[in-house]
Design goal:
Strand content: 25-35%
Distance between the termini: 35 Å
Shape: globular
Number of helices: 4
Radius of gyration: 15 Å
Largest sheet: 8 strands, mixed
Length: 161
């Protein structure tokens, strides 16, 4: 792919600025298609597609959690692990305000506001992850070590298949 074959988002500028190698992947975005759709379009296991979820605690402070596409976040376990009383999904408008990205196109890279980032620890065991590049229908393949640039803290809060 040449430089003009994919969008130059804030996330891409972040990756380039931190010299993080990535491979761009465009796919047809489907509303509410989630990671199952993107994994199918790219022909990769859904477990390797990492979703970026914007949450907030009881003080309305934002945070980002990175989770395997085929898993869910236990907000109860996350709150317990972080010593907080309550964690819930952020309102999409608030998430957009914090990150600068639309829901379905949220990347942990290059957010408007620096939010704490938490990563399901087993994501680091993968050879390659596919994570949003800052636009709906746009993923970037990176090594999990790319998450080090976010100062991401490991958590163990996955539930599901």
């Amino acid at each position: 792919m040449s430089k003009t074959d994919y969008p130059i988002t804030t996330a891409i500028r972040f990756l380039r600025g931190h010299n993080i190698p990535f491979t761009p992947h465009l796919y047809p975005y489907v509303e509410h298609g989630g990671t199952a759709n993107s994994a199918e379009c790219l022909g990769v296991p859904e477990h390797q597609v990492v979703k970026t979820i914007v949450l907030q605690n009881e003080h309305k402070q934002g945070m980002i959690v990175l989770m395997h596409g085929d898993k869910q976040i236990s907000t109860r376990n996350l709150a317990r692990e972080l010593g907080m009383k309550h964690i819930e999904p952020a309102d999409p408008k608030q998430a957009n305000k914090w990150t600068g990205y639309l829901v379905g196109g949220t990347s942990p890279f290059g957010t408007k506001t620096a939010l704490p980032v938490y990563v399901e620890r087993t994501i680091r065991d993968l050879d390659l992850i596919y994570i949003n590049g800052g636009k709906r229908g746009f993923l970037v393949a990176v090594a999990p070590q790319a998450l080090d640039a976010l100062n991401a803290q490991d958590v163990n809060v996955a539930t599901g298949s």
